[in-house]
Amino acid sequence: MRRFATIKDIASALNISVSTVSRALRDTYDVNASTRQAVLQKATELNYRPNFNAIGLVHNRTHNLGILLPEITNYYFSTLFTGIQEVAYKAGYNLTLFVTGNDAEREVDIVRNLSLSGLDGLLVSVSSQADSDQHFQEVIDNGVPVVFFDRVSENIHTSKVMQDDYNGAFEATVHLIKNGYGKIAHIAGPEGLTFTQARLNGYLDALRKHKLPVKPSWIVHSGFTQQHGEQDLEQLWERREKPDAIFAVNDRKAIGAILALKRKNIRIGKDVGVIGFTNDPVAAIVSPSLSTVAEPAFEIGKLSCELLLKHIHKKRFEPEQVTLPGKLIVRESSSRL
């Protein structure tokens, strides 16, 4: 059986003490840069692998992180997970995934039944139905760091990573206005979620800035699926006055709206403009192609995991709130040409 190198092997090869090698590998303040670089290079040459079980016993760490997601089957959340995975695996951490299915009761049940002794930290995107966050505070009170990403809890004092929902929605709505649409509806996410409200506020402020009517009957709250988008569009078309454009909270709802409009023989773009939010790959291949606001999902995943590791390794790490910008992507669905 192949024998992996130990800290003693590195120390012997460099003619330095075992304690110096250990501190260099942990990047402590009392090891100079040249020594640390020499240790890292020799560790690579000797194929050194840290013994996380032993490290865990010494530092009371398991090198396991929990991730709580509303779902995993759509592009956005799978991309988030990929970003988290890249950082975690490079740092030598294993991941345990918990999926709530957007169910608030299941979220509470999962969190309150976690084996906290088996986790060094928890990454969370809250359920779309969640109206309580006390279960997350209980985790933090038990000494396990929590970092929120994408769908965050406003009331918990910890690090949070989000995309710029307000400005993305504002820019999407202004884009529709500049393309000649003046009666713009919003098919929104569930009420009570921070990012649902941020995107709604961006939409409303864009209308107000351009002195367009704000009609409560043109704002429909529901879930995030394609089916919800179809149902929202049908609900809008029951109104006496119908909109000439739709801003959807995400791409799946936008595509649902497009399908419902097509069934009514309404031309997308020419008759009714549509814009989404996410930049799901299907947005580029649906016909007509869907204008959208691209979210930096991979970067959100990476940064949230990096912040969680800082909370784990620096017990007095001051929480950070980071907002990353989106990018407007113009395609056929918002053009009247």
UniProtKB/TrEMBL annotation:
Coiled coil: none annotated. SUPFAM superfamilies: lambda repressor-like DNA-binding domains, Periplasmic binding protein-like I. Pfam families: LacI (PF00356), Peripla_BP_3 (PF13377). GO terms for molecular function: DNA-binding transcription factor activity; transcription cis-regulatory region binding. Keywords: DNA-binding, Transcription, Transcription regulation. Residues 5-59 form the HTH lacI-type domain. This is Transcriptional regulator, LacI family. It comes from Chitinophaga jiangningensis.
